Task: inverse folding
């Protein structure tokens, strides 16, 4: 009987022929997506091409994918005598991204799990506790005072992690993932005598892998790209993360370029547009490599998290 | 069950309402912080001298000379600068510079660097003052100082400057304080001393092109048109990327002596009246001139949208605004990387008209109300401007290691930035670098001799009463006036619309308020 069904399925499969319109649509979509990919990639190629161009040729001819006049001046400006500082900034950023992402995923997952435990009475209040700051903000000054005067985060490595350790949106996303896991599994484990910590660790954590990777990537990206926390709390150069270091450098280049006509004392030709592009290339390098590995999780994760209410 | 739900809803809505109120109150709380931080300012304004003596252990009388200013006790000040501390600067701040600070003023100086984006009102420095975070000094410009003064962030330094700046008074023009005077007090200590007379009133042109086309002077707008036309025909250069309201253009449009004040308003230096620029004959002449240039292809079509940084240096334009005869230093080296044979020169259009000095020094040190070491900060600024030895040390580094003096000119060995050269440079005491020729220095040192002080020097507008009008007028000016000033739109079909729209945006209120403030400023002056 089963063989019959299989044969029937095979026949059915063989019989379904794609129509001309389907094939046309398929070709159209491939071309469309291909073109879209090129459109997305083009600015990146422009940035790479421009970063290897001579500043004057960029000023006169504009951005080009293939440099008209090849130059490494922008990279020399960024990496030159300050290469050691850049390396240090890279180390800080990697440390922040790894530590921060792990901590954030654990904290967010634990919070999201608790919000799903029906027996936990104050979960409604916790929900509000999470929800209210999404709508109302106390403002910059109280936040700054809290972090500097009460938590003493100035010039502290933790300043780069703690203030954005838990993101409400990501917690809600994880809560929705956990909701998609059948409650019966947890109940069965509870009957077998498992504690909540064990249920969370053994059942929920592995089953929500897709969601955790997605949220983890969101956190990793936000830690990698963050310069604001360093701007607010870090004065020691040894603690500068990469983005802040480059943000600072770019601001300096801009200032010097503007200053050139305003006062005596500066006659330095700083590469400006090319420096910006070189900065982009230097900063996006490592994080862009993460995407291909996490791509399948991201797509799945965002879709699951989005449709479950 | 339903009742419980209702109750929950009530509780939630109460919590939400409370959160909203709290959120509102917290927002106001930041103001509270500002008001609080004003209190010490008032205190400081009372008897700052007395307090500084006790707070930082300074035991000098107000009539002490420079050598006897050194306090008995060692103290530390934190100074906020912008940019990035270079490796060499770090080294010097740990060794030679720090030793000089201790030897001279018995003070350890710690530097805190912030990105240049934080330089100005609303940045991290304001946040630090409002939150009570401790630092003792930060560089500031007149516009930012005015804003900080209005918020109550700055300390009155009147008594400090009398006592602790003996060398400063010898080497810097005290008129520089005028940009930081509010209600009888002085709220920042300027640093540096460079000629600023007629800045942006000159036009900087390509002297090599002038020679090639047989022109030896530019003194009228007709001369400038002739030069621009020839540069376009023979070298394919656009005239400029600057708009028609550039000061050197307006200087040539009439006999009046107009100096720009703010969006749409100029000051007649002779009658002391504010001039509504759009209603003035100068505006009409400038727009017609640019429109003519645009028709002839002298103005680039992307003049308003192309954010090209230095078009003159990139050999894209044949002229730009000049500064103080300093084009040899500022523009020529950059231009010569593109056109090796290029030469530049600055000319006054209408050279018979007076030259005005609109600003003295743009950079000063502010002391926040939270600091109790204003005396130490004053001594620190005084030291930076004490004499040639000190000015050179802090700007160029250690002689023999960071720079060499050859025929009285500085030849740099180290190119890393130390204390900002542009900030410390004092034409009276600093040694010029080798790039400055003797001929140039001759002209440069006397550049300001014929300059008259501008009427608006030291005047800063408080926009708080006309914020809405100001925002609308700025936006409309950019949308309607700039295309005219770029030559893209003709004068006759567009001027009425510009006037009508600005009137609707509250032009009369805007003008009246600024006129009132300016009258008050002149009366006090």
Result:
């Amino acid at each position: 009987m089963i063989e019959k069904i299989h044969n029937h399925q095979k026949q059915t499969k063989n019989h379904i022929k794609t129509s001309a319109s389907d094939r046309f649509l398929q070709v159209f979509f491939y071309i469309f997506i291909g073109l879209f990919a090129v459109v997305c990639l083009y600015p990146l190629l422009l940035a790479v091409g421009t970063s290897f161009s001579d500043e004057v040729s960029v000023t006169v001819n504009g951005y080009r994918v293939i440099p008209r006049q090849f130059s490494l001046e922008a990279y020399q400006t960024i990496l030159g005598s300050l290469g050691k500082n850049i390396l240090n900034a890279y180390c800080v950023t990697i440390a922040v991204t790894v530590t921060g992402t792990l901590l954030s995923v654990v904290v967010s997952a634990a919070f999201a799990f608790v919000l799903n435990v029906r027996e936990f009475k104050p979960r409604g209040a916790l929900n509000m506790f999470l929800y209210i700051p999404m709508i109302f903000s106390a403002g910059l000054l109280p936040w700054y005072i809290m972090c500097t005067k009460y938590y003493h985060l100035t010039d502290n490595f933790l300043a780069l992690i703690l203030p954005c350790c838990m993101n409400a949106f990501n917690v809600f996303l994880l809560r929705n993932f956990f909701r998609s896991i059948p409650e019966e599994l947890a109940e069965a484990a509870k009957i077998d005598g498992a504690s909540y910590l064990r249920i969370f660790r053994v059942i929920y954590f592995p089953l929500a892998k897709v969601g955790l990777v997605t949220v983890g990537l969101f956190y990793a990206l936000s830690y990698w790209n963050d310069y604001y926390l360093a701007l607010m709390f870090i004065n020691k150069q040894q603690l500068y993360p990469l983005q802040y270091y480059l943000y600072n450098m770019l601001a300096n280049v801009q200032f010097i370029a503007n200053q050139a006509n305003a006062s005596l004392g500066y006659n330095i030709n700083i590469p400006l547009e090319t420096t910006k592009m070189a900065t982009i290339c230097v900063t996006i390098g490592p994080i862009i490599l993460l995407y291909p590995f996490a791509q399948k999780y991201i797509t799945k994760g965002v879709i699951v998290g989005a449709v479950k209410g | 069950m339903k009742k419980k739900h209702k109750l929950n809803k009530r509780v939630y809505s109460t919590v939400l309402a409370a959160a909203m109120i709290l959120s509102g109150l917290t927002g106001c709380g930041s103001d509270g912080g500002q008001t609080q931080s004003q209190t010490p300012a008032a205190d400081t304004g009372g008897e700052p001298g007395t307090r500084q003596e006790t707070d930082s252990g300074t035991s000098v009388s107000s009539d002490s000379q420079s050598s006897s200013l050194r306090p008995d006790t060692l103290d530390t000040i934190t100074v906020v600068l912008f940019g990035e501390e270079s490796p060499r600067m770090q080294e010097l701040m740990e060794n030679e510079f720090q030793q000089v600070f201790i030897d001279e003023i018995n003070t350890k100086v710690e530097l805190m660097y912030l990105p240049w984006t934080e330089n100005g009102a609303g940045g991290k420095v304001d946040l630090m003052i409002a939150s009570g975070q401790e630092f003792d000094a930060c560089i500031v410009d007149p516009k930012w100082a005015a804003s900080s003064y209005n918020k109550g962030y700055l300390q009155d330094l009147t008594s400090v400057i009398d006592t602790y700046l003996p060398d400063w008074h010898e080497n810097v023009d005290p008129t520089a304080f005028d940009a930081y005077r509010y209600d009888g007090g002085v709220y920042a200590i300027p640093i540096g001393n460079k000629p600023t007379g007629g800045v942006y009133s000159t036009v900087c042109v390509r002297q090599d092109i002038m020679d090639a086309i047989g022109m030896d002077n530019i003194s009228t707008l007709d001369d400038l048109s002739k030069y621009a036309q020839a540069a376009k025909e023979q070298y394919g250069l656009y005239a400029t990327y600057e708009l028609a309201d550039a000061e050197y253009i307006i200087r040539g449009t009439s006999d009046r002596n107009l100096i720009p004040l703010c969006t749409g308003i100029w000051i007649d230096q002779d009658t002391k009246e504010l001039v509504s620029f759009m209603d003035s004959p100068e505006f009409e002449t400038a727009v017609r001139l640019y429109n003519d240039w645009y028709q002839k292809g002298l103005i680039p079509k992307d003049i308003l949208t192309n954010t090209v940084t230095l078009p003159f240096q990139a050999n894209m334009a044949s002229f730009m605004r000049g500064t103080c005869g300093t084009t040899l230093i500022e523009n020529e080296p950059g231009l010569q990387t593109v056109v090796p044979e290029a030469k530049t020169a600055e000319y006054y259009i209408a050279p018979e008209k007076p030259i005005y000095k609109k600003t003295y020094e743009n950079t000063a040190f502010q002391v926040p109300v939270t600091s109790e070491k204003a005396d130490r900060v004053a001594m620190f600024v005084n030291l930076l401007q004490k004499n040639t030895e000190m000015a050179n040390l802090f700007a160029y580094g250690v002689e023999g290691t960071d720079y060499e003096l050859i025929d009285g000119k500085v030849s740099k060995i180290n190119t890393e930035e130390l204390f900002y050269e542009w900030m410390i440079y004092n034409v009276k005491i600093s040694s010029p670098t080798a790039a400055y020729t003797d001929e140039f220095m001759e002209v440069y040192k006397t550049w300001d001799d014929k300059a008259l002080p501008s009427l608006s020097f030291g005047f800063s507008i408080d926009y708080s009463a006309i914020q809405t009008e100001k925002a609308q007028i700025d936006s409309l000016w950019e949308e309607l006036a700039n295309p005219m000033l770029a030559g893209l739109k003709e004068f006759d079909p567009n001027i009425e619309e510009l006037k009508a729209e600005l009137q609707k945006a509250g032009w009369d209120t805007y003008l009246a308020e600024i006129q009132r403030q300016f009258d008050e400023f002149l009366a006090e002056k």
Q: What stands out?
A: Residues 260-268 of chain A have pLDDT under 50 and may be disordered. Chain A touches chain B at residues 56, 59-60, 81-82, 85, 124, 128, 132, 136-142, 144-145, 148-149, 154, 231-232, 235, 237, 247-249, 251-252, 254-255, 257, 259-267, 269, 272-273 (CB under 8 Å). The radius of gyration of chain A is 26 Å.
